[in-house]
Write a structure and sequence with these properties.
With 375 residues, the protein is of the alpha+beta class. It has helices at 118-149, 155-180, 185-194, 200-209, 213-216, 219-232, 273-289, 307-316, 334-338, 363-374, and strands spanning 20-28, 36-42, 48-54, 59-66, 70-77, 90-96, 99-105, 113-115, 244-246, 252-254, 262-268, 294-300, 323-326, 346-350, 356-359. One of its GO terms (molecular function) is oxidoreductase activity.
Length: 375
C-alpha cells in the first residue's frame, strides 16, 4: 500500500516549475567508505535516474534539477554493496523540490528526519503521524504469512475486518488531509494514490476540483485530470464496457452475453502470486452463489507463449468451473486497457443491468457484498 501524511498547511508557489534546483544534504552517523548513498527517481520524461554519492564521516550530497516536485527513493548501502539486485535496502523517501533538503539520522534512513523544504517538512510529519497505522498493517501482513505457513485458511475470516479497518484508517487520514489542504501540492500527490481505488465521481473528482487552479494546471495536475477522466468510464454505476475474448477452447465470449446476471470480471494471471492466493476466495464465491444468478468471468494477463501455464493454473486453482478468457498478450490485453487495469488482482462486479456496482472486492469483503445482494 502506498502511503503519505499531518502538519500545518503548506502553501506552495506554483509560478513556473521550470528547472527547480535541489540539493540533498545527508548525514548518517559516522559512516565512511565503502558506504554509498543512492538517489532513485523517474523524471518527467519517464527516464529512471539512479545517482550515487560517497559517504564521508556520515555526510553525502546530491544535486540536481526537476521541473516540478517528484518523490524519490533515497538509499544507503552501509557496506558499499551494489544497490541493484540487493534484497535488503536501507531507504527512505524524499520530495525533490527547489531548495536545500536535509536528511539526518544517527543510524538507519528508516529513522531519518527530513527538513529544509516545505514538502519534506510536511512529509516528515505525515510519516510520524501514520507510523502506528503502518505498524498495524505490517503486523497483520506478518500474521497472514504465519497463517499461510501453517496451512491455515481462516485469516480472512478471523482478521479480515481488522485489515479493512486498518486500511480505512489510512484512507480517512489521507482524504482528511486533502480536504484540509486544498492548496498543497502534497494533497495532489496523495490523491493520485486513490484515483484507481475510490469512487471517482463521488469522491475523487470533487476533491480534485476543490484544489487551486495552479495545482490542477501543474503537470501532475493535468495528468491526474486525465486519469480521472479515464477512471470515470469504469466508475461505480457506469455501464461496464463490453468486450469479446477467447476462452480456453478458443471460443469468442462477450461480457454482454451474461447480461441479466451478476458477473465478477476478475483480472489475474498465472504468474501473479497475490492473484493465485485470492483464487480460492473467488472459487468459494462462485460455489456459494452460482445458483443465485451469479457467475465469474476471468480475464488473464498471461504472457505470449504461456498458454500451458495459464491452463495449468486454471486446473490447479479449480477455475474451470466458470468462464476464463485470455489473449495471452499480458499487459497489452485490450480488455485490461478498456478497464484501466494497472495492477492485478483487480475485479469489477457488474449487476444484471450491466452497470458496475463494486470494485476490488477481496476476501470476506467479496463474500459479504454478494451475500448482501443475493441472499
Amino acid at each position: 500500500m502506498k502511503t503519505l501524511i499531518t502538519s500545518a498547511l503548506t502553501l506552495l508557489s506554483f509560478a513556473g516549475f521550470a528547472q527547480q534546483q535541489f540539493t540533498i544534504e545527508g548525514k548518517a552517523g559516522n559512516l565512511n567508505s565503502p558506504a554509498k548513498a543512492y538517489l532513485n527517481y523517474r523524471d518527467t520524461a519517464g527516464t529512471i535516474i539512479l545517482d550515487s554519492a560517497d559517504v564521508v564521516n556520515g555526510v553525502f550530497t546530491f544535486k540536481g534539477a526537476v521541473t516540478d516536485p517528484i518523490d524519490a527513493g533515497l538509499m544507503l548501502m552501509h557496506n558499499g554493496e551494489p544497490v541493484k539486485g540487493a534484497r535488503s535496502v536501507d531507504r527512505t523517501f524524499v520530495m525533490l523540490e527547489k531548495g536545500n533538503i536535509k536528511v539526518n539520522t544517527t543510524d538507519s534512513l528508516t529513522h531519518a528526519t527530513l527538513s529544509g523544504t516545505p514538502l519534506n517538512i510536511d512529509y516528515n510529519a505525515m510519516v510520524k503521524a501514520k507510523a502506528p497505522m503502518e505498524k498495524k498493517l505490517r503486523d497483520l501482513a506478518q500474521l497472514r504469512i504465519a497463517y499461510q505457513g501453517e496451512g491455515n485458511t481462516n485469516f480472512d475470516k478471523e482478521h479480515g475486518a481488522e485489515v479493512l479497518a486498518a486500511r480505512k484508517a489510512f484512507e480517512d487520514y489521507d482524504l482528511g488531509y486533502i480536504k484540509m489542504h486544498p492548496n498543497s501540492y502534497m494533497s495532489l500527490m496523495i490523491l493520485q494514490v486513490y484515483i484507481n481505488s475510490l469512487p471517482v465521481t463521488m469522491t475523487i473528482e470533487p476533491l480534485f476540483n476543490a484544489m487551486s487552479a495552479d495545482i490542477r494546471d501543474s503537470r501532475l495536475g493535468r495528468l491526474a485530470g486525465a486519469e480521472i477522466a479515464k477512471y470515470k468510464l469504469v466508475d461505480l454505476n457506469a455501464p461496464a464496457p463490453d468486450f469479446t475474448q477467447a476462452d480456453t477452447a478458443g471460443k469468442m465470449i462477450s461480457l454482454s452475453s451474461f447480461k441479466g446476471k451478476y458477473v465478477l470480471v476478475d483480472f489475474w494471471a498465472s504468474w501473479c502470486k497475490p492473484c493465485r492466493a485470492e483464487n480460492p476466495n473467488v472459487v468459494k464465491a462462485f460455489n456459494t452463489f452460482k445458483n443465485k444468478n451469479f457467475t465469474v468471468v476471468g480475464v488473464s494477463l498471461d504472457y505470449p507463449g504461456a498458454k500451458a501455464q495459464w491452463l495449468k493454473a486454471i486446473a490447479d486453482d479449480h477455475l474451470e468451473q466458470f468462464t476464463e478468457l485470455a489473449d495471452l498478450q499480458s499487459a497489452t490485453n485490450p480488455v485490461a486497457a478498456l478497464y484501466n487495469v494497472k495492477a492485478i488482482p483487480q475485479n469489477f462486479l457488474v449487476g444484471p443491468d450491466g452497470k458496475i456496482i463494486a470494485k476490488d472486492l477481496r476476501g470476506e469483503e467479496l463474500q459479504e457484498k454478494l451475500a448482501s445482494l443475493l441472499n
